[in-house]
Amino acid sequence: MSTAMTRDSSDLIDGGGRPSLVDADARTDDELLVALEAVLMVVDEPVPAAQLASVLAVPTAHIETLLRELVADYSGERGGRPRGFELRDLGGGWRFYSAPAASDEVAAFVLEGQTARLTHAALETLAVIAYRQPISRGRISAVRGVNVDGVVRTLMSRGLVEEAGHDEEGGALLYRTTGYFLERFGLRALEELPPLAPYLPDMESLSGLEERT
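^ that's the sequence the OP posted. Answer follows.
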């Protein structure tokens, strides 16, 4: 019988009193790398390093080191061939993505027979929300000069925009971008948006326009 099978059950309880399914001290880095790959293979959204560390019962700093090793392995930096996928830190967490070199082929496969691209109106509305969030539909309409109800619903259905509470003054429903928005546009945080905000009207100057739209 293996050593792991003969351990006392108390060794499988972590500091918080929760059962631990793995013995972190007994695993090598290679085994941890395999576990990381397996977990990342099944995630639907970017996963923070701290969450991966919690799952694997390993310090976050060590998990971040291992993630960087995987990035280097997949990119071919260590002599291996480049892969058709990459591991990236985007949208507040880690996730596998297809390699940019194969973007045309991936797009052809995913978009074949679909109309997945956002319209120009949707992109304009999304830009207003991204740079002025949280913002109401009335103020978005004031910036764009048209009714945006349908476009906002489209952006919400795509998972790019979500509700963000109500305006304290008028009670209007507010909207903001989502973590999925960051992921799709290759951003770590909103601070990485290009400096376009100065070209949008100040919210204080929209009060009269909002009443007329």
